[in-house]
Task: structure prediction
Amino acid sequence: MYLQNPDIKLPEDPDTIVWKYLDLSKFLDLLMSKKLFMSRSDKFEDQYEGTFSEPTYEEIKKLSANNPDFLNYYKTHREKVAISSWHLNEYESFAMWQIFTQNSEGLAIQSTISRLQKALNPETNYAQYIGEVNYIDYKKEYIPFDDLFFPFLFKRKSFQYEKEVRIITDVKQNNITLNDGLKINVDINLLIEKIYIHPKSENWYKNLVIALVKELGFDFEIDKSDLESAILI
Result:
């Protein structure tokens, strides 16, 4: 279930477009299970994921001088938070194709902020929050810690190209252990507005994706990315 948090920043326009780039196996798993996979926060490639900037860490260290459990709680909290990452962009991104797909056989899901919010409502086991990531200098800038989600909504400026919007859930109250992550129930038809096929893919691949989607009972608009369309001169 999606819950609004007034402290978490989101684009003002609910029709703001977001993207998810993934390979065919992960896409088919999404359609077949009707569940969205969310990665455990400390399993991301960025080792700073869910941690604090230096100014914030120094303040927390002072506060925990007589209460070591305070600092340990923040360290272990990363194991209880799961994240689904989406790319905020009006248009598809060549860089995202390069980073998140391989062998010219990936695809991109186009959605919107409002679609994400509504698509999360079938999930009743875990509360979901959506927020836009802030990119800061971890040596100089401060990350607030009055909200437990804030460490997961800040990243280093080096990752600014990701323009990330995140679906976040915290399972600490559910008394479960996350291994690699968590799968949550979603409304697939609300989640997906359109599908784009990898710009370097062959026509047979596009036809395969169309056939598989139809076989699974869905009727999304599917098109090939136009990043590799023929030049006009």
User: Anything to note?
Assistant: The helical segments are 24-33, 54-63, 68-77, 94-100, 113-119, 188-191, 203-215. The CA atoms of residues 106 and 132 lie 25 Å apart. Residues 17-224 form one domain. The chain has one domain: 17-224.
